[in-house]
Amino acid sequence: MNAERPAGPLPAPETDDLGNFRWYLRGAIASLSLPAFILAASFVGFAALALEAGVTITQAVFMTAVVWALPSKVVLVGAIMAGNGLIAAAFAVALSAVRLTPMVVALVPEMRTPRTRVWILYLLSHFVAVTSWVLALETIRNVPRARRTAYYGGLGSTLILLNMCVVTAVYLVARDLPPTASAALLLITPIYFLTSLWGSAREKAGNVAMALGLVLGPVIHMIAPGASLLATGAIAGLAAYGWHVWTRRRAT
């Protein structure tokens, strides 16, 4: 005698390749958005910067795929222009990428299931940058948990492939692009990052940290330009955390 089956359709298994492919395509479509356009515009500036530094088109496209996060690539190109050695350049890029660790920590639990393979999470962690992270947080909770890895894989890989194409195309015409236009396009990304992170902050402490950073950044830069970014982040972050703890204690 067969055991009774619960009413309603059974959840699709995570190994259903066709279902995963459909959600991969949905993620790819979700990546084609205004944030992706802004990011692509910023990569126009990066391509011009890489060309000026003497980086070949193959190296620039490879850098786009492997390093991925735009600020880290700018740091790497800056190290190349400064004539720094391989170890120093690698350390600078790694230090720049540390800022993405909290994003990975916040996003991975949203995708993990008991069946998810660890190597898939490691692979998807490579796609984490501010744009893909913001887009994922806005949409991934509407995706069935068993399909979230496929969805984010489509979103992240499409953003990378799109900007690899942008770098390739711009490299062919970048010599005709005015330097001022290249610099302006490169600055679009931090402006977008700031507005996106402000809107997607789940705790008021995030807004407090950003507001303090905007105020303290220029002041600390005048005092200690070499350590202004690190010092601003540490002071604003600790102050925002203290404010968060204080408000929670008041609420209780």
Keywords:
252 residues; mainly alpha; 12 helices; globular
* Total of helices: 12
> What's the Cα radius of gyration?
21 Å
Beta fraction = under 5%
Mean pLDDT: 81
Description:
- With 252 residues, the chain is mainly α.
- It has two domains: 17-188, no CATH class; 201-252.
- The protein is 75% helix and 0% strand.
- The chain contains twelve helices and no strands.
- It has helices at 17-31, 34-52, 57-66, 70-82, 86-97, 101-111, 118-125, 130-139, 148-173, 179-200, 204-223, 228-251.
- Helix 4 packs antiparallel against helix 5.
- The radius of gyration is 21 Å and the shape is globular.
- Mean pLDDT is 81; it is low at 1-14.
Helix/strand layout:
Elements: H1 17-31, H2 34-52, H3 57-66, H4 70-82, H5 86-97, H6 101-111, H7 118-125, H8 130-139, H9 148-173, H10 179-200, H11 204-223, H12 228-251
Helix pairs in contact: 1-9, 2-4, 2-9, 2-10, 3-9, 4-5, 8-10, 11-12
Describe this structure in a few short sentences.
The chain is mainly α and 252 residues long. It has twelve helices and no strands.
